[in-house]
Amino acid sequence: MAEATEFKAIGTRPVRPDGVDKVTGRAQFGADLNLPNMLYGKVLRSPHAHARIRRIDLDAARAMPGVHAVVSGADFPGAQHGEIGGEGGGDVADVAKNVMARDKVLYHGHPLAAVAATSQAIAEAALAAIEVEYEVLTPVLDLEAAMAPDAVLVNENCFTKNLPEPAEKPSNIASVMTLARGNVDEGFELADVIVEGEYRIPMAHQGYIEPHACTATVNESGQATVWTCTQGHFALRTQTANILDMSVADLKFIASEIGGGFGGKTVVYLEPVAVMLSTQARRPVKMVMSREEVFRASGPAAGSCAKIRVGAKKDGTITAATAWLAYEAGAFEGAPMGPGAMCVFAPYDLENFRVEGFDVLVNKPKVAAYRAPGAPQSMHAMESALDDLARELNMDPIDLRLKNAVAEGSQAAYGPKFPAIGFRECLEAAKAHPNYQKPVPEGAGRGVAAGFWFNAGMESSAEVHINEDGTVQIIEGSPDIGGSRASMALMAAETLGVPYEKIRVLVGDTEASGFNNVTGGSRTTFATGMAVIQACEDIIAQCKDRAAKTWGVDADQVEWEDGQAIPAPGVNAELKPLTLAEIMKTAARTGGPILGRAALNARGPGAGFSVNFGDLKVDRETGKVDVLSFTAIQDAGKAIHPAYVEGQMQGGAVQGLGWALNEEYIFDGNGVLENPGFLDYRIPVASDMPMIDTQIIEVPNPSHPFGVRGVGETPIVAPLAVAANAVRDAIGRRVHDLPLSPPNVLAAIEEG
Amino acid sequence: MARVVFPDHLLSVTGGVREVEVRAADVRELLLCLAERFPGSETALSKSAIAIDGQIHQDAYLEPIGDDSEVFFMLRLEGG
User: Fold this and answer.
1) What is the CATH number of the domain that holds A110?
2) What pTM value is reported for the model?
């Protein structure tokens, strides 16, 4: 790793390259594209949470003037099996059926037909003309019902995976997982204090402001171009190709600007449908979800039930812990139960533990990733239990965590030993923070919790072109969600030694850029950044070679410093340094254009830890909870652009607090979502929140040239338990289930 | 020899064996050794993430393994 003391560009806070276009309305988001002869695509969605499709009659819709295409599940290729591709997508057949139902509809809002017409009104009328005959089935709507031995089956072909012996009967439990170490029975016998609790969290949506939107146009050769708002246009291209049985060479995906994703824009919903409709109509087709459709049929994060038991000695040493974790997958398998199980005890050095996890089918929308998928649910339970433990032991909650915290060399609960990590540094910073030293305001309670996420590396590509005047063009393929263009430019500026202002960054489409995995897993600044750094190093090597040719010296007699080639110390001292611009002036004579490139699978992303605390006030008459102050502390390894790291920490804190305090999917007894809009699904707004204070800890990641760790996901993990623990402190009684909404908190106060 | 540990969800393909010692120069050699020792395990093992001496690799193949390395097979991770 580079010495982290003398950075010139890294650690500064310049304006983001895409900022002006975004604040002036010039930036093109998913729904902004309009093409000549464009049609409007609309989806027919199931009115039932669980039903067999007996018959679909599309004839009346097809016959309507202005209707140019009508499709249902029968028009799609037969469901093939295999990995869908991309991140967290699951099986091709499952994703294909989620995009368009075949024999059964599995949740209220499940697509089962689509039309393309010359206007939205005609498209909606055509949907109304489609006749469907259903055999309505009993919906499976909660974990208890789904896991019961005689449960109604969501999928008659689902057999539980990972059992010691192959399952003989179908089940709604799609898979199980266990993690264990030591002997928990002996560990609990050593404990002076044991706490336990059962915690439930309902499904919640990622709440991105921009709905899913795409436009597809297919030419007479069958080649399609798709504009879409996504976290990963390469992944969506792969998924669409797999679902439609096409070659990726016949699909060009262009990522628009994106108004939030948080994990929810890593899988296809509309794109294969738009391609099918455009293929049939021979005209471009635009599809934009309404907010109601977004809530009913995209995302959400998994609902969960967690049972935790923790035992400790009087000095705070944890002797044993168990976790039982069940996650709602929605209609298709793939809840983030595995990561949840691996995270639940990750921050703590435990000799004896056991974790059991269950991925459970229910007749609700298929869940999608949401920042640190799986971790907030399980760690809310563990961090709440630790708060109870600290009270029982009369210990400061940070001291209790310090007593058990993992450090470099600790064996993580999920297996390997930790390399350099910054958890203890975060805890110590929290203990010393002025906000923690202040007394808790009258009538409020204080909560403390820790957060953890693995972070990811994965595949990235980048090209760096030097323009004829010495300015720099970066081309990469990671959609910019959290300011990654600025981070790429800063790392290029640092590596090349050129000013940030002379660098431009293009997020290229699937034909213009090398392959990049999704912008997810907190990987982009780490992995795509590493590709940019290596591409810049490629540029430097070429520039030194060009300078050597210009000067007539050996290449090893040239060095690179501050954006220019200089003679190596002690030789050729009379030679005048050559800047990038000067090298480019003679580039045609020394070998032509200069282009650097790199493609890699980034290794060693470096785990992320956080510690959050906050003071929350409870209105005892209404149960309303107000956040008075909140402090987020997190190890970023090295903050490339500190303002955007702080932005990730603040955004994660607000989303986590929203999940804790108000957000929940409310279903009626038939599986119909009752709050599919922002009036009834209450995400935090600016006036709900105080300024979120941040402190960046920098324990460099030894696997990155500048020490970077991912920072995008860890921030959402701790706030759930911070809120729960603060409310416990304020009202003297634990509310185990989220959200801590006024009715739930008031009920707890009245019970107390 | 490197210490190689399997999580519970892979015990069905290792016949219940949780831990083995293997001499392999890299992950490619390790996977070949394990395929020989546990016939039928190739798909499940090659789809796993692998941590070598604390560093998690999603698509490990050419990563070197030392004589005293700790190797853990893990669930592949996703993110948001």
Assistant:
1) 3.90.1170.50
2) 0.96
